[in-house]
Amino acid sequence: MARINFFIHFIAASSLVSTFLSMISVAHASSLIPKEEGEIQLTNLACLSNQNPKCIYTALGSNSYKVTSLEFDKQFSVSRLFVDQRNTTNDYSKFGIQFLAEDEGTNPSMGEYWLRPVAYTAPVVKKDTKTSTSTQKNLNAPEDSTVGTRTNTTAPKEITTTRSDGTQVITEEIIETTITTRQIMVDQKTTQTVYNEKTKKYETKTVTVKVPKLVQDVTTKTTTQTTTITPGKPVENGRLEVGRFKFEFNNPLAGIKLNFFDVEDFNYTGILSYTNSQGKNISVPQMLSGLLDSKGKIIDGTIQSLTLKDVKSFVVQLGNPGTKYGYKSIFSSTGDGVGFQLETVPEPSNLAGLGTLAILGILGSSQLKRKTSC
Question: Bridge-partner residues for 341, per DSSP?
């Protein structure tokens, strides 16, 4: 089973600060990966835990960056991102995730810390049948009322509650009020002065007469609908390492080199776009493909490298979900996993001859890693 791991090394250098650039020529690559295992705090997902896995923050300090998980397919939720050391076992089974010391697929060098995405199935959305309740009351109409019927419907009001397991319950409420103003005849007592022929005097007496009156029938209808959204589950116990992420650096990087380990499927993995220090967004039209030997067979464990210069942010797609989800793949039962490294170029000036985007090729066969299975 092919897998994705994601390892970042870098030397950050602002292209706008010349004094700092002059220092980079003697600098060595410095890892951006926290030297502890756990989950990266994403901008759009709360961490699963603060203890196991530990929640790791990367947005602090001069070389900070933040990561946003992006949707890449409606069949999936956005992926989470973890720091993992290749040769340790991590039991996050409370959250449906287990990292093995020996992965089923891609296995990079021992002892290094890697960023590995965890793919999640799509959330399950359940909408209950709408229910309605009505109340009615009769009121005296205000003085300025006129005979007729009017209906007022409020805008939908949503109340969201989140359970401890992340399930969201959204209750939508719509209130419809119908007011019918009508005229009725009512008895009204009044006094009248009349002349009594017998007594030859005027007398006052109380009589009951019919008079018109406006009343209102007020009917209030409340319609509610409850929607329950159950979060998706980690795919393959968290070991389908597929995802799309946006990395945003606190300071622009003068140059970065991205190494992709064990790309075997075609046109799924690579940099989708990046933004430079001037805010210009640049699309990268070509994705990476598996490399073939002289007999046309996919070479296992190769490393392909891409180099960018003047980078403020970039969007990367890691891996291919596989045939189960309708993708073309050389694998029949799972997707293609790809290891990913990121490091700054120690000599930014050397990038002038490489162009903005350059494919640097494959490392020597001595650096290839073999997988335990496909």
Answer: 7, 259
What tokens appear for 125 in the block?
Answer: 């959305």
Q: Are 320 and 265 in contact (CB under 8 A)?
A: yes
CA–CA–CA angle 50, 338, 295 (5° rounding) = 165
If DSSP codes are grouped into helix, strand and coil, which group holds residue 349?
helix
Q: Which residues contact 26 (CB under 8 A, 6 or more apart)?
A: none
pTM: 0.72
Residues 6+ apart with CB under 8 A from 228: 125, 126, 128, 167, 168, 169, 170
Helix (H) or strand (E) holding 21: helix 18-24
- 3-class secondary-structure state, position 366: helix
Q: How far apart are CA 71 and CA 123, in angstroms?
A: 12
Cα separation, 294 vs 286, whole angstroms: 23
Helix (H, G, I), strand (E, B) or coil at 367: helix
Question: What's at 332, amino acid-wise?
Answer: S
Q: What is the pLDDT along the chain (374 residues), one digit of tens a residue?
A: 555 454 444 434 333 222 233 333 334 567 777 889 999 999 999 899 999 999 999 988 666 889 999 999 999 999 999 988 877 899 999 999 999 887 766 555 667 788 889 999 999 999 999 999 999 999 999 988 999 999 999 999 999 998 877 899 999 999 999 999 999 999 999 888 888 888 888 888 888 889 999 999 999 999 999 999 999 999 999 988 899 999 999 988 888 878 787 778 888 989 999 999 999 999 988 888 888 888 888 877 777 888 888 999 999 998 899 999 999 998 888 888 777 877 777 655 544 434 444 444 444 333 333 333 33
44: nearest Cα among 68, 63, 61: 68
Per the CB < 8 A criterion, the answer to whether 227 and 125 are in contact is: yes
Q: In terms of Cα–Cα distance, which of 319, 299, 368, 327 is closest to 2? A: 319
